[in-house]
Amino acid sequence: MKPDIPAVLAELAGLVARNAAPDVDPAERAGALSLSAALLGMAAEAWDGATQRLVEENRALRALLADAGDRAGPMAGLAGAEDDDLTISVLSAANARLRAGLIMLHAAVEAEDSPEARALESRIWQELRLSTDRRRMSSALA
Q1: In the 3-class helix/strand/coil scheme, how is 60-89 assigned residue by residue?
Q2: pLDDT at 140 > cutoff 80
Q3: What is the pTM of this model?
Q4: Which of 20, 76, 79, 107 has its CB 3.0 to 4.6 Å from that of 72, i.e. a possible disulfide?
């Protein structure tokens, strides 16, 4: 599961509001505020790079679907689209559709026994690794 930044920020707003009460235990308040600070830092990092990451991923997924040709099946039509609207919600929706297409493509190439299918499967796994790397937070690199 991937929590959306607005939901995280709303939860943090409630946490900060609850800890503003004078009767909150100081140790509990300190823990909640430390957690809030860490989550806000991660949200800021994720928000700052979200558009770039989604555009890169969408391009890579479209290239895989385009190169798959007939193997992409009904999802082949996604390959020709472009990201004209750069709002995060629209990019995320396109990314979800492309990932669904990638899953279908991956299942198709796994069922084939040809060098072309193995090469395409290797490219799919490579993109999945790159996608994971794109989402890695700087705090995870330390």
Answers
A1: HHHHHHHHHHHHHHHHHHHHHCCCCCCCHH
A2: no
A3: 0.78
A4: 76
SS3 127: helix
Best CA proximity match to 63, nearest among 73, 78, 52? 78
Secondary-structure breakdown of the chain: helix, strand, coil percentages, each rounded to the nearest 5: 80, 0, 20
Q: pLDDT per residue over 77-118, tens digit each? A: 888 889 999 999 999 999 999 999 999 999 999 999 999 999
Helices vs strands, H then E, count in the chain: 5, 0
DSSP conformation class of 114: S
Amino acid at 84: D
